[in-house]
Amino acid sequence: MKIVTIIGARPQIIKAAALSRAIKCHYANKIKEVIVHTGQHYDDNMSQVFFDELDIPRPDYNLHVGSASHGVQTARMIEGIEDILLKEQPDYIVLYGDTNSTLAGAVAAAKIHVPIVHIEAGLRSFNKAMPEEINRIVCDHCSTLLFTPTKAGLENLKREGFPIKEGCPSTLRGTASSTTDIPTIDNPKVYHCGDIMYDNSLHFAEVAEEKTDIIERLEVNGQPYILATIHRDTNTDHPERLTAIFSSIIKLSEECQVVLPLHPRTAKLLKTNLDEHLQKQIFGCPNIKLIPPVSFLEMIALERHAQLIMTDSGGVQKEAYFFKKPGIILRPETEWVEIVETGNAILTDADEERITQAWKHFKDNPPTLFPEIFGDGHAAEFMLEQMLDNFASTH
Ligand code: UD1
Ligand code: UDP
Known about the structure:
By secondary structure, the chain is α/β, with parallel strands linked by helices. The protein has helices at 10-26, 48-54, 70-88, 100-111, 131-142, 151-159, 196-211, 214-217, 233-236, 239-253, 264-273, 276-284, 296-305, 314-322, 337-341, 352-364, 379-393; strands at 2-7, 32-37, 61-62, 92-96, 116-119, 145-148, 174-175, 189-192, 225-229, 257-261, 288-291, 308-311, 327-329, 345-347. The chain contains 17 helices and 14 strands. The strands form 2 sheets. Strands 3-2-1-4-5-6-8-7 form an 8-stranded mixed sheet, sandwiched between helices. Strands 11-10-9-12-13-14 form a 6-stranded parallel sheet, sandwiched between helices. The longest helix has 19 residues, at 70-88. The chain is globular, with a radius of gyration of 21 Å. Residues 9-11, 40-43, 46, 67, 98-100, 131-132, 231, 264-265, 268 line the site of uridine-diphosphate-N-acetylglucosamine.
């Protein structure tokens, strides 16, 4: 069986590590993977670092699309991906998450009848102002095999008309579809399984402690700190929202150190969307460590040692949960609703008052119960088994 995997943005490169690792360990003689990097992320610390560190095979193709408006960036990707699919003639295209690289892969593949496997299917924010919401809806509805990481994801697919068995999910993972026909784009098959990022977090957690010295380098060893990341366009592109978030960071830094690896989008927009006084406070505050994006192993080490994690990232809010840390989610809603429902994270939006209240709440009541809602760390093997089974049934 031959698959073409599309990656492009940082989290997709990390997710792909789990699938490539499972292919290498269990299915090297059965699955050939062709990796296509769209070039959506291209700085070394947003892309190359993950190949170096996570043992991901080098991409077979790099489209080098770079940054551009949504339309231009996606169009360039579609053109490049279509050429590769026609040349490679894969049995499946594998798409992760909800970025423009995901959308481009879905549109290119669906039009030339390459079956799509969507990993992280069914997640919804119910906010179509988010570019990611459009990307995930389109991708899900063009897919043949859909792997949903959570119960909420499965319920969303059911609501949108996907054929889901009653009472599912009753097990950790399994087929959720009520139909047994051979899956196609018109008759897709849905599986409930764990989250592929959980596979990675478990796999790399111990390695992170051995192989990185970021905790020592930042001199936060044994000291409480808040780990923060901010990159959503709704936060970075609106001066009043970015100001509210950074004002709250200044406030929290009076009580606790803050470590903030800056996404390049945020690094650029800080300079235009915050007034000079706030910029001076942020850059001059000894308790705020603004650092360039870190590697995945460094990020895991930072997450494991943090007192609390404050983020608008999808991946980072889950990793907070994986490592049993309270989370402040700098968004009005989340696709990962279970984290909030269990009381382990609070949605504060970009609201200074709510952020401060959430910090106080978790400082006084650190959460202790983190039920296993993201599987058992073996989602990638399960997905590959299902792909192979479906491939066998059609050949
Ligand atoms: C993208 C995804 C988002 C995901 C995030 C992960 C879309 C619509 N958005 O957002 O869902 O959460 O990746 O990080 O696909 N830039 C650089 N160097 C880089 C990459 C980006 O400087 O290597 C800067 C450029 O100024 C660029 C901006 O960051 O314009 C935004 O990059 P882009 O890939 O368009 O969106 P992200 O905000 O990264
Ligand atoms: N991450 C990283 N270095 C950083 C910030 C994040 O390795 O400096 C990792 C993080 O651990 C997670 C993933 O990148 O696995 C999340 O990516 P991001 O926040 O860019 O996007 P999202 O998950 O919101 O799509």
